[in-house]
Amino acid sequence: MTNSVQVRRAGRHFKDHVVLKDVDLDIAPGEFVALIGQSGSGKSTLLRAIAGLDPEATGDYAKPDRHAIVFQEHRLLPWSRVWRNVTLGLTGTDLRQRALRALSEVGLTAHADAYPGTLSGGESQRVALARALVRTPGLLLLDEPFGALDALTRLKAQALVAQLWAEHQPAVLLVTHDVEEALLLADRVLLLADGHIAESYDVDLPRPRQIGHPRFVALRRQLLAGLGVAETEEEL
Ligand SMILES: Nc1ncnc2c1ncn2[C@@H]1O[C@H](COP(=O)(O)OP(=O)(O)OP(=O)(O)O)[C@@H](O)[C@H]1O
Q1: Which residues of the chain fall short of a pLDDT of 70?
Q2: How far apart are CA 129 and CA 131, in angstroms?
C-alpha cells in the first residue's frame, strides 16, 4: 500500500439517520489533510471509524499500525501525574525517559510530575499531544484539538503542531471547523457533505502560510463557499 491511509466505502448510520454514505479517502505518508464540514456532517464519526473506535462503521480501512488520536477534551486522568498520563498503556522500563522526551517537545518538562488539574487548557492539550507523540505514530488523528482554546493559545498550539509535523512527518488527519486553521496547516483540505467527500482543495502555498496572501484569501473564500457560509459570517 503506497497510501498511509486508505478508506473505501466508509458508511455509518444511527438508526435511520445516515451520516456516512460512501466515503473514500486517501492520505499519503507524511501528508497533512484537514477535514471540514458543517456541524453534524459526520467529521468526528469518520475520524472514530478510521481510528478503529467504531465497530458499527462499515467499509474498508487501512492505516499504519501505530496511530494516535487527540480529542477536543484532553482526556487526561486527574489522579495520574502528567508523565504517567503521557505513557499510559505503554510498557517498558524507560517510560519516564520517553515521557520526558515527548514533554520536552511540547515545552512541558517542568510539569512532568504535576497533576493534570494544575494545568491550563492549552497545557493540557500539549500533554495530550505529547501522549500522542510518545507513540511515534505513522498517523496522527486530531479531532478539533484546539476547539476549546482561546485565540492566542490556539495560534500557539497550531504553530506547535506545524513544527511537530515538520519534524516527525506523520500522516495527519485534522478535523476542524476553522477554515483558516485548515489552510494554515494542511496540504489538502477535504469537505465532507451529504455523507461523502464532496470536494478536495490543494493548498498550494509555501509554509509558513500567510493569511494575507492573495491565494490564501482565495482558498478561504472557496472553502467558505463549499461550507455554504457567506464570507462575512466568520465562524460556523
Ligand atoms: N452515538 C450516536 N447516536 C446517535 N447519533 C449520533 C451518534 N454520534 C453521532 N451522531 C449523529 O451523527 C451526526 C454526525 O455527528 P458528528 O459528531 O460526526 O458530526 P461532526 O461533523 O463532527 O459535528 P461537529 O462539527 O458539530 O462536531 C450528527 O447528526 C450526530 O447527531
Answers
A1: 1, 231-236
A2: 5
95 and 173 in a single domain? The answer is no
Cα(57) to centroid of ligand 1, in Å? Answer: 13
Instruction: Give the model's pLDDT for residue 35.
Output: 98
For residue 12, give the ligand 1 atom closest to its CA.
Answer: 12
Residue 180 grid cell:
483558516
| Rounded Cα gap, residues 34 and 152, in angstroms | 21
- Reported as a single tens digit per residue, the pLDDT across 107-145 is 999 999 999 999 999 999 999 999 999 999 999 999 999
Cis peptide leading into residue 208 (ω within 30°): yes
Rounded CA-CA distance 42/60 in Å is 17
13, 33, 128, 225 from 20: Cα distances, Å: 7, 18, 28, 22
* Contact indicator for 136, 67 with CB cutoff of 8 Å: no
List the domain range (segments joined by +) for residue 92.
Answer: 81-136
45 and 156 assigned to the same domain: yes
Residues with CB under 6 A from ligand 1: 14, 19, 37, 39-45, 177
Residues present in the chain in total: 236
Q: How many domains does the chain have?
A: 2
In a domain, 73, yes or no: no
